[in-house]
Amino acid sequence: MDRLLADPRSWGLMLAATLTVMSNATITPSLPGLEAAFADDPLAPTITRLLITAPSLLVAVVAPLAGVLADRLGRRRPLLWGLAIYAVAGTAGLYLPTLETILASRLALGLGVALIMTAQAALVGDYFDGPARGRLMGYQMAATNLGGLAFVTTAGLLAASDPRLPFAIYGLAVPLFPLLWRILPEPPRHGSARGPAAAPDLPADPGWRMVAGVMAGAAGLTFVIFYAVPTQLPYHLRGIGLEDPRHAGTVMGAMMASAAVMSVISGLVRLGRIATPVLGYLMLALGFAAIALAHGLAMAMAGAALIGAGLGFCMPTFITTALNAAPARYRGLVSGLITSAIFLGQFLSPLASTPLVAHLGYAGAFLTGAAGFGLLAVALVAILRRQAPALHVKRTAE
């Protein structure tokens, strides 16, 4: 067994990760039901879709500031603040009376997600070095998707009874609070920290700013396309006759299970920082094409599994490449920038996909997404091959 799995800090970080990247998509199976429940609101079709992406807007704005906060105040306090906000704002959809107030609570949820995600990503860089860091990021991505699998599948079952019930899932942050308080200690400070708790900072790899920028850009564009799945897939499935909310939960579950498996594999198989995400993009393209051509549940699940596998290859590589390049004292900022890019991509996704759906239909929109991932693969290869190899300098401590 990997020694990382014997470290309670690893499990604490993985548990925190389950609340983050797919947190917005947890209520995906509820969208058609919520739209029907608030049918008297003329803005219901728009607002129900924004319930998925609204947290992303606040995360995109706040995450860099949350990263700076984590660099200056330490990692634990932002993490624990984020858990408290996540629990309160996430469950508010159970009782708030209007779609507009639920939308406001989803924006507050984004603040909690920003604090949790930037702090726990920085802790990965603080607690672990070298290959262990990459493996843990793979495990963490797997935990995110396994959590998403459990959350979305459960949400599909709950939404079949009441479209508000899936909001209760966010209450899982409450029991996690005392657990993470106990097992995630504050790491030594770097760089500007003073006193006996300060740890010596390590020199940055050459070109680390460029590396971080490229990885953040790739992550953001990936999510612009990818997030058509949670925002548009339930409606596409209804269009091909799969109207039960459990069908959406099942398809999303297949995607997350596949992403969990491939995230672990991506941390163990070292294909390089170009080949790994390019392979991921190719799987994403095939998955989107399969979703577009699907006429039944089996084909939709197969396409979703390919999408999950592709995301599992891409995302850990983007994050670990940036963290490996950055100096320790800027890990919070770098994790905040990538978090911001991911969630900005999520927010922009329906703004890009909805016009495509209007002009091309759901199948045409998903085929366009497949072509987009192919173009991203070509662009990433071109950019990284021209760039000087910024990660060739090995730190003696990593």
Automatic annotation (TrEMBL):
Query: What keywords are annotated for this sequence in UniProt?
Result: Cell membrane, Membrane, Transmembrane, Transmembrane helix
Concerning InterPro entries, the annotation shows: MFS, MFS_dom, MFS_Efflux_Transporters, MFS_trans_sf, Sugar_transporter_CS
Q: Which GO terms describe its molecular function?
A: transmembrane transporter activity
Q: Which sequence ranges are marked TM in the entry?
A: 49-70, 79-97, 103-124, 136-159, 165-184, 210-229, 249-271, 278-298, 304-323, 330-348, 360-384
Q: Does the keyword Transmembrane helix apply?
A: yes
Major subcellular location class: membrane
Q: Does the keyword Oxidoreductase apply?
A: no
Q: Where is the Major facilitator superfamily (MFS) profile domain?
A: 9-389
Stored Pfam families? MFS_1 (PF07690)
Q: How does it sit in the membrane?
A: Multi-pass membrane protein
**A cellular component term, taken from the record's GO annotations:** plasma membrane
Q: SUPFAM superfamilies in the record, alphabetically?
A: MFS general substrate transporter
Q: Where in the cell is it found?
A: Cell membrane
Q: Write down what this protein is called.
A: Putative 3-hydroxyphenylpropionic transporter MhpT
